[in-house]
Amino acid sequence: MTAQPETEPFRLDPDGADDRHTLNARLRAHGGAAPVALPGGLTGYAVTRHADLKDFLAHPDVAKDACHFAALAEGRIPEGWPLLTFATVPGMTTADGADHRRLRGLATKAFTPRRVEELRPRVAELTTSLLDGLAEAAATDADGYGTGVADLRRHFALPLPMGVLCGLMGIDAEHTDRLHTLSNRIVNTNTTPESAVAANREMVAILAQLAAIRAAAPGDDLISALITAREEDGSRLSEQELIGTMLLLIVAGHETTLNLITNAVRALCAHRDQLALLQAGKVGWEAAVEETMRWDAPVSFFPFRYPTRDLEVGGTLIPKGAPVLAGYTAAGRDETAHGPDAHVFDVTRDQSARHLSFGHGAHYCIGAPLARLEATTALRALFTRHPDLDLAIPEPELPAHPSFVGNSRQVLPVRLTPVGQ
Question: What InterPro entries would the database entry show (predicted)?
């Protein structure tokens, strides 16, 4: 093992207002893994270099089950800890081995290539409807930014993945706004202990109610399929695992795509030359999605993995049981993987050095095909209908998403046509 010099943990801003990419460069320069200060005075580690992260995500001596989380086992994590849900929610993201394969297998059926392709018409239909709503919001000054301006995040980037996901799961539209609000509180890292506990309890209560509705009146949806699997063989899915799986699908299934679309629009508005290549058909819109995932990933530091023994990562010793964050935004700009121009947004970039922003190994994101479909459809339709769309507020003035887990902005006011038209 390589001995490490004493160093103070790097601070991750719970408000998400720090210069994320400058911090990431410092973390990469530190070594294969860097100590980071987590809420409550706890020290964890962030793995931020591409090669180290790829190896770590698939390492046989790295676990996801919180039984390996030393501080939790020792009683040092309070109930209202902002990141507790990421560690303890029952489901595929906190399971290992056979349990993980069992839980993942039940949910994967809804995200097969065939099932995702069947969703293409629905995604296109919803995209068109939401673009109509975006134009109406801009024309009526619905968001208070002035006539001709609307919050693209509120009217387009959010309801698209949320609408598709809720349709897939069998959740009525009346619940979507509240589920997003609660999901947002759960992923925020600046929330108070009281707010964190309340958000989790309300989310679980709503999901239990939705599960009961589907149990009484099953349909052709994912929740019904999960309930059927549980009832056919009770050992396949417990009640807690059912609710935990629903929670994970809602949070991960729309928050990440919401951030992806938001970040892609920001990037293209700031790089009009790259947008011109896409609009001229010289590059496919899929390339814009992949480059955004690399250059400004929707998830920055994802919790948690735990070494099951003292583990060396790129020359850094991580103690057994320490909570480790996957540094996706940092790995995306690692020059050793993506070249000396890794900091440059370039939709023509050779994508052979694949980004890790959907994960790697056994826990690779099952929703990646759907996220790609939604984002590609959204960007193509948005900039086809509104080719001159631009930010209505300068990028530095856009408030950050209050989290070091999620990576985006809270709002995205856009002007659909140039001033005077």
Answer: Cyt_P450 (IPR001128), Cyt_P450_B (IPR002397), Cyt_P450_CS (IPR017972), Cyt_P450_sf (IPR036396)
Calpha distance 310→184 (Å, rounded): 34
Assess if residue 1 is contained within a domain.
no
Residue 391 confidence (pLDDT): 97
CA-CA distance, 33 to 55, in Å (whole number)? 12
Report which listed range, 173-187, 221-235, 291-305, 343-357, is most confident: 291-305
Closest CA to 368 of 179, 82, 108: 108
What's the pTM value of the predicted model, to 2 decimals?
0.93
Asked whether the predicted pLDDT for residue 30 surpasses 50, the reply is yes
Q: Is 308 helix (H, G, I), strand (E, B) or coil?
A: coil
CATH number at residue 154: 1.10.630.10
Residue 394 is which amino acid? P
- What pLDDT, on the 0 to 100 scale, is given for residue 419? 58
**Beta sheet of 149-151, edge-to-edge order:** 149-151, 413-415, 390-391
> Each residue of 370-400: pLDDT tens digit?
999 999 999 999 999 999 999 999 999 999 9
| 127, amino acid identity | T
DSSP state of 157: I
Cα–Cα distance between 373 and 370 in angstroms, integer?
5
Q: Domain total for the chain?
A: 1
Q: Which residue has the tokens 């970040």?
A: 263
- Residue 234 is predicted with a pLDDT of 52
Domain with 142 in it:
10-415
Q: How many CA atoms lie within 13 A of 359 on its CB side?
A: 20
Does the pLDDT of residue 235 top 60, yes or no? no
State the DSSP code for 401.
P
77 with 84: CB under 8 angstroms?
A: yes
User: Per residue in 303-325, is it b (16+ CB within 10 Å) or e — as a string?
Assistant: bbbbbeeebebbebbbeebbbbb
Residue 4 lies inside a defined structural domain of this protein: no
Secondary structure element (H or E) that encloses residue 62, with its range:
strand 62-63
Whole-angstrom CA distances from 140 to 90, 126, 291, 403 are 44, 21, 34, 32
Instruction: Report the phi/psi class of residue 402: left, alpha or beta, with left for phi > 0 and alpha for psi in -120 to 50.
Output: beta
